[in-house]
Amino acid sequence: MAAHKHADLIKQMVDxxxxxxxxxxxxxxxxxxxxxxxxxxxxxxLVPPKPKTITIVANGKTYELPEPMRVAPEIFxxxxxxEMHRIDSYKWEDEVCEQVWLSNGIxxxxxxxxxxxxxxxxxxxxxx
Length: 128
Description:
By secondary structure, this protein is an alpha+beta fold. It is built from four helices and seven strands; from the N terminus they run αββαββββαβα.
């Protein structure tokens, strides 16, 4: 029996966590796989989405920064908090203060994203 024409894509989708689709906080890999298998007339291009960015113009310079988290992570998932020139790492516990930090846009999904914000803010303040 011949392999399904999207067999490689299906394997990649199962193996690669960056290609997993979610709806809210629920993973819907099975749903996506069903569409790939049942709709083989389509040319499926599953490309991880480009991270969203925010553009800030300050002191005549443009900064392209990663967008802060907008949705709370799962309980005990790690996130990075930016406060002025400092980055702290925490595990999400859904506390009131964490909800405030999230709404204030100072929570980041990666240390690298948080560091970009710290560096840009230092440069804007003239500290760098």
